[in-house]
Amino acid sequence: MTSKKVIELFYDVVSPYSWLGFEVMCRYRHVWNIELKLCPAFLGGVMQGSGNKPPGVVPNKFMYMTKDLKRAAEYFDVPLQAPADPFEVMFKKGSLYGDALRDSGARTGERRRQAGGAGVPGAVETDLERGQGHHRSRIVGGGANWSRLVLFGEAAKKAGLSDGVIKDALETAASKEIKDKLKDATQKALDYGAFGFPLLVYHRNGSPEIFFGSDRFELLAHCIGEKWLGPRPNTSAAKL
Description:
Elements: E1 5-11, H1 16-28, E2 34-40, H2 43-50, H3 59-76, H4 86-92, H5 96-116, H6 124-142, H7 149-158, H8 163-172, H9 176-192, E3 199-204, E4 207-212, H10 217-224, H11 233-239
Active site: 15 (nucleophile)
Keywords: Transferase
Family: Belongs to the GST superfamily. Kappa family.
């Protein structure tokens, strides 16, 4: 049996392009022969560490992004909607606490999954990943202050997580351990050469191959020896 190819996905919920990359890679994780490792990290730290500038401070880049996201949302079939004040939501409120919550939830979910084995319905970790879609729709759709605990709780419930898992995640979200893990992931992304998200890292023969953005899936597929079947691979395969 062929061993799975390891791909790391570095993302930040504050980035709409990260959501596109997240959704597509989740769709392909069981289509391609890959092991997808989710690596939530702090986009603000990557921007600062790499010397990059966010679209909000480059007018032409920001105007392009607002139009491009509309096209991308339609193509990838992801319900992206611009918030009332995108600069405020994406570049001022930040995502450090929100990502700490997510990382904490994933870790807690994995512990519960290991403890419960097959008895835990529907792979808790995957359910939390799917919960990002609900959570992001609240952020991008309404421009709410999504770092609030209540939004995380709502997203987790929609993803099917139990009250106990949610409680554990919220209690450990602000811990030094979780914050340190987020910092470590951010530094790891910078060490790979990141300057923005999403960042896909394919490990080939011990050497990392880096792909930036949500428009490099065809190149990634070529690199790993798989086929790109469009944004909805299961639908595309059914038509063949």
